[in-house]
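Risk mitigation, structural track. In case the binding assays with NAP fail to produce interpretable data, a predicted complex structure has been prepared as a fallback.
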Amino acid sequence: MSSILVTGANGQLGREFQVLAERYAGFAFTFTNRQVLDVTDEPAVFQFFTHNRFDYCINCAAYTAVDRAESEPDAARLGNVDAARWLAEGCARQGIPLIHYSSDYVYHNAQNIPLQEGDATTPRSVYAITKLEGEQAVRASNPLTMILRTSWVYSSFGHNFVKTMLRLGRERESLGVVFDQVGSPTYARGLAQATLDILTKVDKGEVPKELLSGIYHYSDEGVCSWYDFALAIFEIAGIDCKVLPIETKDYPLPAHRPPYSVLNKSKIKAVWGLELKHWRERLRECLGVIAKT
Ligand SMILES: NC(=O)c1ccc[n+]([C@@H]2O[C@H](COP(=O)([O-])OP(=O)(O)OC[C@H]3O[C@@H](n4cnc5c(N)ncnc54)[C@H](OP(=O)(O)O)[C@@H]3O)[C@@H](O)[C@H]2O)c1
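Fallback model:
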C-alpha cells in the first residue's frame, strides 16, 4: 500500500484530507500538524524524512494570513518559501513527488480572460510574493513537484469567507461586499478529492508520475464576484440579509487583492481527466455539511 504524508493537516484543506482518507483506502495516510512536524524547523523536517519513508507528500502547511503578512514578511517567507523548500528537499532525498498548493494571487490582472498557467505572474502583496517564491523554491529543490494554484478556498473547517458570511448574515440586516474582485470559489473538499484522484492515477500507473511536475490550476467551475458569492450563500442557507455591492476602495485592507483571478482549468482537466463541479453545486455541498455540524 502506498503511503502519503499530509503536512499542515489541521488547516481547511488538511482537515478535508482527513475526512476523505477512509474513502481512499488504497493509501496509508500520515497526518502531521504543527505540533508533530513544524515545517519551519529545518532540522526537524530533515530528521522527519530520515526516520520516516513515504511514497507521496501533500503539503497543506502554509502561512495564509494574507493581510498580516504585510507586517510580518519574514514569517510569511519562512512559512511559504523556506519551509516549502525544506519539504521539497526532504521529498527529493526520498525520490518522491510533492504536491504543493499556491494561489491565484500570484497573478494581479485587470484582464477578463481566464488565466493560464503560462501567463505572467505579477504578485502585489507579501503573501502573493512569498507564494510565488515558494513555487520557485519547491520546483528547484524537487522537479517532481506538482503545484496546484487555487483560489478562494473555503470549507466547513477553519476560517473562511463562507463561514464569515453565515455569521454576519445572521447578525445583521445588511452587509456590504465587494463586487469588483472576480474569481472562482473552491470547496476544499473538492480540491482534496481531485488531489487524491490524481495520485490514484499515478499510483495505478494510469498516468506517468512525471506528469505531476509543473503548475496546474484548480478551482470550482464558474465565475463570480465576492458580492455574487455572498448572495448565493444567503440564498442557499436561507438567510435574510441584504447584500450591498461595494467597491474595493470602500473596504480597504492591508494587502492588495487582484481584481480578476479566474483560473483556466483546461490543463488539469485534459491531463488528469478531472470533471470539475460548478461553484454553486460545491457551495450547496459545503453548506449541507455545515448545517449538519
Ligand atoms: N484559503 C485560501 O483562500 C487559499 C487560496 C489560494 C491558495 N491557498 C493555499 O492553499 C493551501 C491550503 O490553505 P488552507 O486554506 O487550508 O490554509 P489554512 O486553513 O490556513 O491551513 C494552513 C495550515 O498550515 C499550518 N501551518 C502553518 N505553519 C505551519 C508550520 N510551521 N508547521 C506546520 N503547520 C503549519 C497551519 O497550522 P496552525 O493552524 O497551527 O497555524 C494550518 O493548519 C495553502 O498553501 C494556501 O496558501 C489558499
